[in-house]
Design a protein that fits this description.
The protein has about 220 residues and is of the alpha/beta class. The chain is built from eight helices and 13 strands. The chain has a seven-stranded mixed sheet. Strands 1-2-3 form a three-stranded antiparallel sheet. The chain is globular and about 60 Å long. Helix 1 packs across helix 4 and helix 2 packs across helix 3.
Length: about 220
């Protein structure tokens, strides 16, 4: 699938898809898998809305970017939607991932290893702890961080869970090895070339935000 990035949009094939819509597609896909496993054949935008917590108007607008996916008064064919989004999201292709940093969070990733998402898999990990180097967690081999440039081959995506003091150095090595997507769990805001996408996930900020909303924006007011 041909993707190009632009201001606020992602181009899939010839259609311009807003980034906000693109971020919601995996959410829709996951729920459709559940519906299909339950044997359900069709679903309405209202049902989807209740399940994924996205208003039905937004769902219909998101789907409209891909043409006529459903029929008014009928809803959406679950099997058809599932196949469509599987192809759109490249779910038939395995994305191999490298994990950099096997601390508590990294270990949790290795044990979980996206078991509910069979198209994404951590296949290699790196750490500086000699007690972990040479072992496996969840079947994934762990190598010394000094071997990164030697061992990392043909992998485009990496998860970064290292101390922020070395995050930029490790990032530079990843970029040099051809990594173009980084999921950054460090507090540091790493710098990358324009052809590399970084998603920053700071759990402490998310928890602070949650606590603030609980205090100042009661659910009854929403």
């Amino acid at each position: 699938m041909n993707r190009k990035r632009n201001e606020g949009v992602m181009i899939m094939g010839q259609s311009k898809i807003p980034k906000a819509t693109a971020k919601r597609l995996p959410l829709y896909y996951r729920y459709l898998i559940n519906l299909n496993n339950q044997g359900k054949t069709r679903v309405s935008s209202q049902e989807l809305s209740k399940a994924v917590k996205v208003d039905s108007a937004t769902i219909r607008r998101d789907f409209s970017y891909f043409g006529a996916l459903g029929k008014k008064g009928y809803g959406y064919n679950v099997e058809y939607l599932l196949g469509f989004f599987r192809k759109t999201l490249d779910q038939d292709e395995l994305t191999e991932v490298a994990l950099i940093g096997v601390g508590n969070l990294g270990t949790a990733f290795l044990k979980y290893n996206f078991t509910r998402n069979n198209n994404t898999e951590i296949v290699i990990a790196f750490d500086s702890d000699e007690k972990k180097v040479g072992t496996k967690i969840g079947g994934v081999p762990i190598y010394h961080i000094d071997e990164l440039e030697e061992r990392l081959e043909n992998i485009n995506v990496a998860i970064l869970t290292v101390p922020d003091t070395v995050s930029q150095q490790i990032t530079d090595q990843l970029v040099a090895k051809g990594v173009t997507g980084i999921l950054n769990f460090t507090p540091a805001r790493i710098t990358v070339p324009k052809n590399v996408r970084v998603h920053h996930i700071d759990l402490s900020i998310e928890l602070q935000s949650l606590a603030y909303f609980l205090k100042h924006y009661p659910l009854d007011d929403e």
